[in-house]
Design goal:
Elements (H helix, E strand, L loop, with lengths): L2 H17 L4 E3 L6 E3 L10 E3 L2 E7 L5 H6 L7 E4 L16 E9 L5 E7 L2 E2 L1 E6 L2 E6 L16 E7 L3 E9 L7 E2 L3 E5 H35 L4 H20 L4 H5 L5 H26 L6 H20 L2 H4 L3 H24 L5 H22 L9 H39 L1 H68 L3 H7 L3 E6 L7 E11 L5 E12 L3 H21 L5 H15 L2 H4 L6 E9 L4 E7 L3 E5 L2 E5 L19 E4 L5 E5 L7 E2 L4 E2 L1 H12 L4 H16 L8 E7 L1
Helix pairs in contact: 1-11, 3-4, 3-11, 4-6, 4-11, 6-7, 6-9, 9-10, 10-11, 12-14, 14-15
Length: 731
């Protein structure tokens, strides 16, 4: 949209709206008496009768009652105002009331008009003792009352110096009771001009929105992939229906006069909701890259719930929920403005001009919400803002279709040019192809020479490949021999089944030889100076690296543990770690070099079956145990075995008084560090814990099988990144 169009559009809207306004005089008065005897009603435009009226809650008085009952106690209430807010009457809810106002004027024989803008939901008006209007049926019970939605202009002739206005109002159906909009007094000529003006505005807006709505329906039929046209059409058509049902002149009543108050009110609310629904969907469809799909579902859900409330509940209930909807509108508009501003920053086409229209419309909506809640008193401005927004967006959508049409014409012209010059293009292309053919022939000769050279190189590579294969075979044979040696060092499975019937060991090396190993031993030792007990020691260790370097460390670790436990008879788990740490540091001369980090992470558990105690200490590796479907983690120490640190290592010991059915797990980090899954992420320790909780009640052999199955499924076609060791023990 160019700058000139924007300026002209704004000037048009300002001029149009300003030209449609009536000259309104605001004269506040007290004690239900208004003195305009010094003014000429014919000269001035329209008077808003805003001020203190006599107010009689839950009383239906006629003008005759005020003559006969001189001792009626007067109450006063400001008009316009909800009688829900009447502060002097709170013992019973107000469902009907009488209003009275005395106007003093100069004595003339004139015809005046009285405009009633909005009274919920039935009323009867007397002027100087004569009934001039009855809308619906006023009653003192819900059964007697018949509500009708209608804004009326009534005319009466008087030449007296006083105008007495008496209004009976009854409302059993709507949440907002009383006179909620200003009552206006004017000379008949001025009021007729005002009515014609307002009727013209309503019909102008109604017709404009219908035309634009159906126009964009046609655009959507031409381009069904452009949903912004559909939502914009539904927005304008919803606005047109809302204006027809809920506008000042109720255009729907001109078409269908017998439409019930109940149905008319429901349609008014529903299409009020639909206007915002399609407004939000239109903004999202225009700037879908910046908008959240969750926001769309929230909009659908909220509007759906609010619509169901309107359809299936009584008017008194669903009219009271309007504030909730308006609060939601304010929150949603803030988000939509954020989406449009973000799109403007990214230079999305049409975003800046949409921001202009949306800002004006959002401000108008907030303004009218305040007006609805009677925090301010003014005419509605949303229709004007909506017209501005619709014109801007209509231009933008049409502009997009115009650009698409121009682009299509350009492609057609290019195609015509190609068709007309096809013979010449074929000749030019043939010359290019022949030149390329000659060039390819020259390159083919060069490639033939290169191919002969490659053949000679291949002969050399084949000879080298045979040599490499021989060396690989020798290396593989050596590794397989090393594997047999490593397996010979590991505890025999049959022996372990005799000593530890309820256990499993899931051992899955990454390479032929492994950097993970497990160790088992038994010691007859005194524990806490009691009688000698047979203690069973089970260890899971993860050495630095994997493959051949890790395998060397496993042999060292295995020998050191044999020395510490079987020869030196050390049976405290933390002391085993201290001894092992010293042996690794001294053997690898790590104090002298100060840089070697070779070592291992290790978990040590000692089973005292007589006292039913499991003692644990860990260097970098934890212990998990599950009791009563709860997984408990003993973290161990953060220090690994080996390597020189500036501070002293501390290996904290733990003792667990085990119960029958407890399951204990020690392991290396290879299982939960494995990359896999659909997104190439680690398995992670949290998922590993959840897996153990799921399988801990299974027989131990089935647990091992399940761990293997889950690991292979997670790894899938990814490469295994580390050795895997998981040991389970059931008490």
């Amino acid at each position: 949209m160019n700058k000139n169009f924007t300026i002209l559009l704004i000037v048009f809207i300002i001029f149009f709206t300003s030209s449609c306004k009536d000259k309104i005089d605001f004269i506040l008065f007290d004690n239900a008496h208004l003195d305009i005897s010094d003014k000429s009603i014919e000269k001035y435009g329209i008077y808003d009768l805003n001020g203190q009226w006599e107010f009689y809650p839950n009383k239906l008085f006629t003008p005759a009652d005020f003559v006969e009952k001189e001792k009626i106690t007067k109450n006063f209430e400001f008009v316009p105002e909800l009688w829900n807010n009447y502060s002097d009457f709170d013992s019973n809810p107000i469902n009907f009331a009488t209003y009275r106002l005395i106007i003093k004027k100069h004595k003339t024989d004139s015809v005046f008009g009285l405009r009633i803008n909005k009274i919920n939901s039935a009323y009867k008006i007397w002027v100087n003792g004569k009934i001039i209007e009855e809308v619906g049926v006023v009653g003192d019970t819900q059964k007697k009352t018949k509500p009708i939605r209608f804004a009326s202009a009534n005319f009466f002739r008087t030449y007296s110096e006083q105008i007495e206005i008496v209004i009976q109002v009854s409302n059993f159906c709507h949440n907002k009771g009383g006179i909620v909009k200003s009552i206006q007094l004017a000379a008949s000529e001025n009021l007729i001009k005002s009515e014609n003006k307002r009727l013209a505005i309503d019909f102008f807006f109604f017709g404009l929105m219908l035309i634009i709505g159906f126009y964009h329906i046609v655009l959507f039929m031409l381009r069904r992939d452009v949903y912004s046209s559909l939502f914009f059409a539904l927005l304008t058509l919803s606005a047109a229906v809302h204006l027809a049902v809920g506008g000042d002149f109720k255009i729907i009543n001109l078409i269908y006069q017998d439409l019930s108050w109940n149905l008319q009110l429901r349609l008014d609310f529903l299409f009020y909701y639909f206007i915002f629904l399609f407004f939000a969907l239109f903004i999202v469809s225009m700037f879908k890259q910046e908008a959240s799909k969750l926001f769309v579902w929230v909009i659908y859900g909220f509007i759906g719930i609010m619509s169901l409330v309107v359809i299936f509940t009584k008017p008194l209930i669903f009219t009271s929920t309007l504030f909730i909807f308006e609060l939601f509108i304010v929150i949603a508009i803030v988000y939509l403005m954020f989406v449009i501003i973000k799109s403007s920053v990214k230079q999305v086409e049409g975003a800046k001009h949409t921001l202009l229209g949306a800002f004006v419309l959002a401000a108008a909506i907030v303004y009218d919400i305040l007006n609805q809640q009677m925090l301010i008193s003014s005419n509605e401005i949303v229709p004007y803002a909506l017209v501005l927004f619709i014109l801007i967006e209509s231009y933008l959508i049409s502009s997009r279709f115009s650009k698409a049409y121009l682009y299509s014409e350009e492609l057609t012209q290019e195609l015509d040019y190609v068709n007309n010059n096809l013979e010449q293009l074929v000749k030019e292309r043939t010359l290019v192809v022949e030149a390329q053919k000659e060039e390819l022939s020259n390159k083919s000769k060069s490639l033939q020479i290169a191919n002969n050279e490659i053949g000679k190189i291949n002969e050399i590579l084949e000879e080298q490949s045979e040599d490499i294969n021989k060396k690989n075979k020798a290396l593989t044979d050596s590794l397989n021999y090393a594997k047999r040696l490593q397996e010979a060092v590991l505890p025999d499975e049959n022996y372990l089944k005799e000593r530890l019937p309820e256990h499993f060991i899931y051992f899955n090396p990454k390479d032929i030889v492994s950097g993970d190993f497990y160790w088992y031993g038994e010691v007859e030792s005194s524990w806490d100076f009691d009688e000698a007990n047979s203690l069973k020691i089970l260890i899971a260790a993860d050495c630095t690296g994997h493959g051949v370097p890790g395998a060397f460390m496993t042999l060292l670790g295995n020998n050191f543990l044999h020395l510490i436990v079987n020869i030196q008879e050390v049976v405290d788990p933390e002391q085993i770690l201290y001894k092992l740490d010293q042996l690794v540091i001294e053997t690898l001369k790590q104090r002298e070099s100060g840089t070697m980090k070779d070592g291992m992470d290790i978990a040590v558990i000692i089973l005292d079956e007589e006292k039913k105690i499991i003692s644990f200490a860990g260097a970098g590796n934890p212990l998990f145990y599950i009791r009563n479907n709860e997984l408990i983690e003993l973290r161990g120490s953060n220090f690994g075995i080996g390597g020189v640190l500036r501070k002293e290592k501390i290996f904290e010991p733990y003792k667990v008084q085990y119960e029958e059915g407890d399951v204990f797990y020690i392991f290396s980090d290879g299982y939960f560090d494995q990359i896999g899954g659909g997104e190439g992420r680690k398995f992670y320790k949290k998922r590993f814990k959840e897996l153990l909780l799921k399988i801990h009640t299974m027989p131990l052999d089935e647990q091992k099988e399940r761990l293997s199955t889950v690991f292979e499924r997670w790894k899938s076609d990814k490469k295994q990144i580390d050795d895997v060791l998981v040991i389970g023990l059931k008490t």
